[in-house]
């Protein structure tokens, strides 16, 4: 039930003020703070299917999916059962479990390009470890990333790092020594000439090229035709490890991720979000030739006390098993995304609202401006003020969007035609 605007967030406001006394900014991840969109965050109490329910009893159709993991919707019966069964055994062992191998084998079935996989506890850890492995394998230090792509908050990646920093208008990150980022080379997304120039400027020095193959931290952006193919070619020519950061897109776009969707294979791939089924999991994997260099097989060290946590791995295995056995889910997600894009575009166009919508599968984003969004510069030129107005309007009408104009929305399989109708009805009222 949606309360009047004047009193609908009383408990959230109280909880936020209390949280600020013990937690920096009152939140444990910066974008949750609503700093970009204004106002204070909404505190959630429970969720089910496609809905979130806050502490004041307000109901929201959810387009965040906990920032991506909840592709099946909240409280999917198979995922809940898997967690319950493991919980009866133990929450952690700090020792190998069979379910780790089962999940690794299932991932290899869904992503045939992977030979070996190492589980970690977050997407940040996965990207950090993949870069270290690439550097150890090639015995080089420099790497290329793209402006607007976010690969977690490890020091080397916090250069032009997309949504999180852009949302808070952080230009330079205190605490990151310049020496750590001296080997970070940055190119504009979708600009192959800039990448070619970097390879020319630093011959035989570039260990890795890491990219969100479909970007999700400057809105949803699809790579230009031939862009990924050319990156693959350049990495082959220069002995550089190509890393696809599929923390967002892995098992969300297709069963095999962007590698399957675009037909381009990476040397290493990083994962998170969906593979944990809503619990904290990350992973990196790739060719045996490279993965054999990670400890204990090789000299590149990586470790984690809770890596392969059986609760999280069980939730992830249950999620991927459902996706693998029901490929029609991906067709449904694509159809839902395409329908939302079409209908929202039609509504906003009829209203004369200047906008651009990008959509790939179950990822979609709206920006307010003249330009089509193809890179980070484009989205920074759009109207963040208009997005903020849109965000709060939708929130007040029971639609929960990411609280930043730089983030992509995520669609779950629990979204039905009635949820779409509710979303479109709200947008029709937006001015």
Question: How is this structure best described in words?
Answer:
It is a single chain. With 431 residues, the chain is an alpha/beta fold. It folds into two domains: 10-63 and 327-428, Aspartate Aminotransferase, domain 1 (Alpha-Beta Complex); 77-325, Aspartate Aminotransferase, domain 2 (3-Layer(aba) Sandwich), CATH 3.40.640.10. It contains 15 helices and 14 strands. The protein has helices at 10-19, 77-87, 98-110, 123-138, 163-167, 178-181, 192-201, 227-238, 257-262, 288-291, 310-325, 328-351, 376-380, 384-396, 417-428; strands at 44-48, 51-54, 59-62, 116-120, 142-147, 184-188, 206-211, 241-245, 268-271, 282-286, 356-360, 363-367, 399-400, 409-410. The strands form three sheets. It has a seven-stranded mixed sheet, with helices on both faces. A four-stranded mixed sheet has the order 1-2-3-13. Helix 12 (328-351) runs parallel beside helix 15. The two termini are 23 Å apart. The model is unreliable at 1-5 and 166-171 (pLDDT under 50).
């Amino acid at each position: 039930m949606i309360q009047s605007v004047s009193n609908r967030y009383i408990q959230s406001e109280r909880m936020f003020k209390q949280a600020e006394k013990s937690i920096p900014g009152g939140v444990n991840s910066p974008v949750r703070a609503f700093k970009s969109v204004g106002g204070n965050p909404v505190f959630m109490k429970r969720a089910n299917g496609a809905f979130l329910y806050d502490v004041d009893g307000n109901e929201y159709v959810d387009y965040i999916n906990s920032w991506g993991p909840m592709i099946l919707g909240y409280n999917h019966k198979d995922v809940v059962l898997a967690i319950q069964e493991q919980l009866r055994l133990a929450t952690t062992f700090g020792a190998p479990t069979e379910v780790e191998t089962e999940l690794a084998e299932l991932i290899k079935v869904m992503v045939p390009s992977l030979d070996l996989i190492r589980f970690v506890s977050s997407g940040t850890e996965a990207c950090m470890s993949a870069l270290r492995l690439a550097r150890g394998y090639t015995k080089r230090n420099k790497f290329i990333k793209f402006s607007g792509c976010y690969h977690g908050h490890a020091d080397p990646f916090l250069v032009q790092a997309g949504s999180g920093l852009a949302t808070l208008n952080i230009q330079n990150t205190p605490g990151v020594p310049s020496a750590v980022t001296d080997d970070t080379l940055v190119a504009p997304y979708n600009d192959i000439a800039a990448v070619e120039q970097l390879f020319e400027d630093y011959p035989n020095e570039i260990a890795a090229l890491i990219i969100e193959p479909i970007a999700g931290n400057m809105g949803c952006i699809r790579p230009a035709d031939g862009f990924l193919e050319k990156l693959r070619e350049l990495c082959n020519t220069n002995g550089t490890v190509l890393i696809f950061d599929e923390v967002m897109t892995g098992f969300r776009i297709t069963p095999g991720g962007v590698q399957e969707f675009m037909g381009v294979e990476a040397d290493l791939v990083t994962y998170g979000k969906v593979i944990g089924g809503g619990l904290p999991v990350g992973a990196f994997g790739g060719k045996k030739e490279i993965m054999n260099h990670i400890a204990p097989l090789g000299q590149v060290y990586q470790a984690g006390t809770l890596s392969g946590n059986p609760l999280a791995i069980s939730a992830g295995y249950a999620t991927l098993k459902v996706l693998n056995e029901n490929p029609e889910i991906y067709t449904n997600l694509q159809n839902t995304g395409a329908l939302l894009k079409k209908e929202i575009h039609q509504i906003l166009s009829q209203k004369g609202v200047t906008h651009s919508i990008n959509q790939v599968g179950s990822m979609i984003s709206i920006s307010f401006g003249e330009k089509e969004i193809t890179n980070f510069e484009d989205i920074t030129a759009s109207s963040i003020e208009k997005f903020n107005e849109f965000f709060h309007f939708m929130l007040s009408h029971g639609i929960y969007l990411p609280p930043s104009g730089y983030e992509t929305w995520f669609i779950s399989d629990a979204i039905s035609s009635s949820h779409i109708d509710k979303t479109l009805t709200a947008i029709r009222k937006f001015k």
